[in-house]
Amino acid sequence: MTKLLKVMLGLAGALVALAGALVALAGAAAAQEETTGSAVETMPQTGRLFDGRAWSQGYAVSTPEMEITEYVLPGEVVEAWTELVTVQRMPGLGNRAQPLELMTVVRKETLKHCRSTTWTVLRQEKDEVLYQWGHQGCRKFDDVFEVAKLYREGSSIVRVAWATKKLPVTEETRATWIKVIGDYR
Predict the structure, then answer these.
(1) Chain-centroid distance, C-alpha 32
(2) Residue 13's pLDDT is what?
């Protein structure tokens, strides 16, 4: 698991708890639902993905509550990356929460741990929120910039994100990733 993912999960502990609680509330109904496949199963493991560069799967895990797949550039690993793409699926959560609600929880938790974090909602629709966030100079955390989207897919909430430690991010790179992440389905 990458350091950023550990940080995000740590900073977003409330999100994980909320996801677990909401999945538990779904009970038998959620257990009976058919899944449409997981990020681990449906995403290619390597190739010219996302922005046309060669990406390869660096990490993947699937549990009943969450599926995560992380992609890295050639020569990088999830423990030491400069850019990272993450696809995260939370089955059953789409029946109980809106993407904007989840983003708000993550934002509040992130700001608790790093007050210099900047956060901007780029696009908001009923079942989707596209946003960017970043920080520099936070105590225990690497400087990072991320473009992410949370959206509903059936009964799941999906989070897709591109993160970089190559700061500052050029406007051209930022615009490219806003389009790539914004168009991802």
Answers:
(1) 26
(2) 40
Comparing CA positions, the residue from 151, 97, 144, 105 lying closest to residue 124 is 151
Give the closest residue to 36 by CA, choosing from 91, 95, 93, 88.
Answer: 91
pLDDT beyond 80 at 18 = no
Q: Write out pLDDT tens, residues 145-182.
A: 999 999 999 999 999 999 999 999 999 999 999 999 99
**What's the predicted TM-score (pTM) here?**
0.76
Tokens found for residue 122: 């780029």
Q: Kindly list the structural domains of the chain, giving each domain's residue range(s) and its CATH number in brackets, ordered by start.
A: 3-183 (3.40.1000)
* 55 pLDDT above the threshold of 60: yes
The answer for residues whose C-beta is within 8 angstroms of residue 45's C-beta and 6 or more apart is 56, 57
Q: Which residues contact 119 (CB under 8 A, 6 or more apart)?
A: 107, 110, 111, 131, 132, 133
Answer whether 133's CB lies under 8 Å from 148's CB. yes
Q: What are phi and psi of 3, to 5 degrees?
A: -65, -40
Instruction: Give the residue from 65, 30, 44, 50 showing the smallest Cα distance to 164.
Output: 50
For the chain, what is the mean pLDDT?
80
